[in-house]
Amino acid sequence: MTRRLPFGMDSFGMGSFGMGSFAAVGAAALVVAAGLVLGQPTGAENTRGHGVLDDYASTPSTAWTLDDQSLPGLTGDGDITIADTSGDDWLVSYTAGIRRMYVLVDAGTGAQRWDEPVNAGFGACAFDESGDIGCSVRTRTDGPDNGFFVVDRENGSLELTSRGSDTAELVGLGADFVHVNDSGYQVSRRSPSGDERWTRTFAASARPSVTDGVLTVATADGARFVIDPVTGEDVAACQDCEVTTYPTGLVVSRSHDGTTTLDFYRVSDGVVDPTRVSSADGLRVVPGLSTLPVVTAAGDTVLQAHGRYQVMDPATGDAVWEVSDTELSKAHTRPCGPQVSFALKDRSRVFFALDDGSRVGELAEPEFGRPEADVDMLSCVGASEDVVVFGNRSQLTAFRPSTGEQAWVLPINGDATDVDGRIVLNQGSTLSVLTPN
After folding, report:
1. What percentage of the chain has pLDDT greater than the value 70?
2. How far apart are CA 211 and CA 389, in angstroms?
């Protein structure tokens, strides 16, 4: 069933979703009224990968750093990435000449678990679901040394399990691995011993990923595919669209003939129900890492006089809570981990918990000449229940909305990301992890 969002006044009001919107009186009183929360999503315990941070209440120090002194043969402009994680073990990839190398490090200390890196050549390595490491090794594009290996997690030794390989990218899926061949067009699921479960070819180069247990494939021509991990067939597919997964479900955002449509699908233990639970026209998902999607009007409805937002449960397609106010801005909303920050027209901000709509706190209008305090100019890095960290390529700024204060500022020179709750910095030719408090 598709619900069409009417344009014009009260587009989040009665008639669009069969429920009234929550309106506050004045900017300072902007709240979700007690008792009006429409129902909390279930099964949202696993929130890793959705901007949920460990405790960064005070200025963090650097826990550890990897660079050309600690990574043998590192070349180029610091091509160091966290390729995969399994608990406190992180698989780090870097380039040495034209080869791709892998080391296993302790996430807390940065200590390398192997005496020597694994040389995957033109291939790749990844964890499976149980934490075993598989590597498709291609020391030459075509040669007798190519094959699939299982890596001993303790010492980094390799055990050959199948010969021959044309794999350039690798993603763990259950006890198997999803391979992308050297051309980038063919994707297959294979066991470590080389048994092929399924294979398919896409019209453009493909990049698979597994998030919340869901296998998706993005192709270079703008198409997105949600894949049945058992058969390799499409559960959902679309062109010029986006697929975003959350702990309870996923959202497919499609645009066609000037209309944006959101489709909601339930996910249970990584299994996507192929029957969409709901569909709505005229809405868009506000960008940002978060545990639940925040949606607002799209298309011509941007002509509304003020902002109106809903926090959705993708497992049902229903609103968990919603907010509307004459002083609410239509821009600069920042979903971030377990929280969302709404900008008001006077440039102050109000923060809410995504799961139940409870008010966390607020920030005053940023002072002139203090760009580090202007959330409008920053992006979400991640948040805990009390502290929200925003940033750009030159700084990180943490706020404590409950007290309305800036918690800390840290100058950086690169990109900051949330990896399993820790803040990771890629700065030039180094990769660093900041210590949680």
Report:
1. 86
2. 22
Angle at 80 between CA 79 and CA 86, to 5 degrees: 150
Question: What's 371's DSSP letter?
Answer: G
334: nearest Cα among 326, 344, 325: 344
Q: In this structure, what token pair is assigned to residue 378?
A: 């920053």
Distance between CA atoms of 268 and 3, rounded to whole angstroms? 24
Sequence-distant (6+) residues with CB within 8 A of 125 are 83, 84, 91, 93, 102, 118, 133, 134, 135, 136, 151, 170
Cβ-based neighbours of 167, under 8 Å, separated by 6 or more: 123, 124, 136, 138, 148, 179, 180, 181, 182
Task: Answer whether 244's CB lies under 8 Å from 253's CB.
Answer: yes
**Residue type (1 letter), 261:** T
pLDDT at residue number 140: 73
Closest CA to 311 of 325, 326, 331, 291: 291
Sheet containing strand 234-239, edge to edge, reads: 206-211, 214-219, 223-227, 234-239
Round to the nearest angstrom and report the end-to-end CA distance of the chain.
Answer: 47
pLDDT at 77: 64
Estimate to the nearest angstrom the gap between the alpha carbon of 292 and the chain centroid.
11
Q: Which residues of the chain have pLDDT under 70?
A: 1-47, 76-78, 141-144, 299-303
